[in-house]
Design goal:
3 domains, 1 helix, 6% helix, globular
């Protein structure tokens, strides 16, 4: 009997030690949307994130658990050995659009990958190389952070904080986008090159955010293939035009630990109520 008790105790200690390096976090929410003149609807969402750590290696696995069966949403392994970092994205996300409108991708693409980065400090610059053959140069110079990716699609991003304004400019394959963030009289303002404007008022835990969303122009479908080769890549569905609209969102943290938010949209004259908790 003593041996049996000792064996049980040893098994318990072993199990506890095995779980010690695992952390579980997640979110859960319930949303009611009156959908304006359409029928109202209630939706639910619950997600869990498992993070396991052993020395310089971390594995994260995400799951969507509000359906009939738990569905994996992410699986990433990252291991660092000195200046060498290996990252394996083991989850293949569904990239093809489920509808034939809205500009979504036509054909499925595989996005699992293994990235090997070697950080070589050259002054204030870091040089990285991934499994796609892209060379990434990044660093901060005179207060300006620059990242330059040389590969199939050349991308350059520069960001800086000047006179209270956070600026970020990205040029990808010849197309430039930018974002400006600043605070005026306690109001957080964001302006993007797509003409989207966001203003956030209030303090942490009790805020109101007003957003002006720009109009979306009609776009024709593009032709692609299952291999993603050619100028059209995997192809895209057509995009219907959408008039500009605004939203007003009020969010408040409750003493129960949950957050309650209400969002009104002029797009369809709808009011959405959402209760959410993060743990």
């Amino acid at each position: 009997m003593k041996k049996l008790i000792a064996l049980f105790a040893a098994s318990t200690v072993a199990s506890t030690a095995a779980v010690a390096g695992v952390a579980i976090s997640g979110t859960a929410s319930v949303t009611y949307d009156d959908n304006g003149s359409s029928a109202s609807a209630t939706s639910y969402d619950a997600d869990l994130l498992y993070t396991g750590t052993n020395g310089g290696t971390t594995v994260t696995v995400g799951q969507d658990v509000n359906g009939a069966n738990a569905a994996t949403t992410s699986a990433v392994l990252t291991s660092s050995i000195g200046m060498l970092t290996v990252t394996a994205d083991m989850f293949d996300e569904v990239s093809a659009a489920t509808t034939t409108t809205g500009g979504g991708q036509q054909y499925e693409s595989t996005d699992t990958s293994v990235t090997v980065s070697l950080d070589v400090p050259v002054g204030d610059m870091t040089i990285g190389l991934d499994n796609s053959g892209n060379v990434v140069l990044s660093g901060t110079f005179s207060g300006v952070t620059v990242s330059h990716t040389v590969g199939d699609t050349t991308t350059t991003t520069a960001s800086a904080a000047i006179a209270g304004i956070d600026m970020s400019v990205t040029n990808k394959a010849g197309a430039t986008t930018w974002t400006l963030d600043t605070t005026v009289s306690g109001v957080d303002l964001t302006l993007t090159s797509a003409q989207k404007i966001t203003a956030a008022f209030g303090l942490a835990g009790n805020t109101m955010t007003v957003t002006r969303n720009p109009a979306v122009a009609t776009a024709a479908a593009t032709t692609g293939n299952i291999y993603g080769t050619g100028t059209g890549g995997y192809g895209s569905h057509s995009t219907a035009s959408v008039a500009s609209y605004s939203t007003v969102a009020i969010s408040r943290d409750l003493t129960s630990g949950a957050t309650l938010s209400a969002t009104y949209s002029t797009k369809d004259d709808s009011l959405t109520l959402k209760a959410a908790v993060t743990f």
